[in-house]
Amino acid sequence: MVVVASVSAIYGLGDPDLYLKMMLHLTVGMIIDQRAILRRLAELQYARNDQAFQRGTFRVRGEVIDIFPAESDDIALRVELFDEEVERLSLFDPLTGQIVSTIPRFTIYPKTHYVTPRERIVQAMEEIKEELAARRKVLWKTTNCWKSSG
């Protein structure tokens, strides 16, 4: 019998708990480097696109980051930084650019449910390499036994 399973099933990728840990929480007044926000957005599978602003993308202009949440149809988030402090969070209409409201905090969810922290991906790759090496040894022994008996 041969059992086939996806890599995510074998190595625990796509875990709901990891999904919850991947969320990015932003609060007015919090200290965070702009590059750290951009890095986290990339980890959440958001793509930078300064031209075509659509769901699951973000754009950067100076110390302003506009984020179009993947789960939103008609509202985007504007993060205004002053140095390394979140100075203002605003919800705005992505078509007109008009500010709808300012808010004290916002949570950005991963673009996909299959987002996995980089550390877990690296760990899974190492486990796959180790298993591959073990399987090669078994296959090598099996192949050599078959050749010598035939």
Keywords:
alpha+beta; 4 helices; 2 domains; single chain; six-stranded mixed sheet; two-stranded antiparallel ribbon
Walk me through this protein's architecture.
The protein is 36% helix and 27% strand. It folds into two domains: 16-115, 2-Layer Sandwich (Penicillin-binding protein 1b fold); 117-150. The longest helix is centred in the last third of the chain and has 32 residues, at 118-149. The protein contains four helices and eight strands, in the order H-H-E-H-E-E-E-E-E-E-E-H. A hairpin with a 6-residue loop joins strand 6 and strand 7 (99-103). It is elongated, with a radius of gyration of 22 Å. It has helices at 7-11, 16-22, 34-43, 118-149; strands at 24-27, 47-48, 57-61, 64-68, 76-82, 85-92, 99-103, 105-108. A six-stranded mixed beta sheet has the order 2-3-4-5-6-7, with helices on one face. A two-stranded antiparallel ribbon has the order 1-8. The protein has 150 residues and is an alpha+beta fold. Residues 24-114 form the UvrB interaction domain. This is UvrABC system protein B (Excinuclease ABC subunit B). One of its GO terms (biological process) is nucleotide-excision repair. GO terms for molecular function: ATP binding; ATP hydrolysis activity; DNA binding. It comes from Escherichia coli.
